[in-house]
Amino acid sequence: MSEITPDLVRHLGVLARIQLSDEEVGRLTGQLDAIVDNIAKVSAVATPDVVATSHPIPLTNVFREDVPGGELSPEQVLQNAPDAADGRFRVTAILGEEQ
Fold this sequence. Notes:
Layout: H1 6-15, H2 22-45, H3 74-78, E1 84-85, E2 88-89
Antiparallel strand pairs: 1-2
């Protein structure tokens, strides 16, 4: 058994600025006690010769190679633009700036 008590749970609730009912304190005391016990079990098994991992199985990159493709002409780029002028996208002014 760990040292998680209802008073400790109430104190943690105050630190977290969470108002806990007596029922919640009782439930959280048991849950936090189980979490701390399980962490202690894992810590007991961990040895210096076991390398720490961030994932239980090796991950591989699934992305394709970044190969440049064909370029688009300015006309192709602007063909679906809602508004264009002088070979550029035309957008409304923002932040009260006039141009």
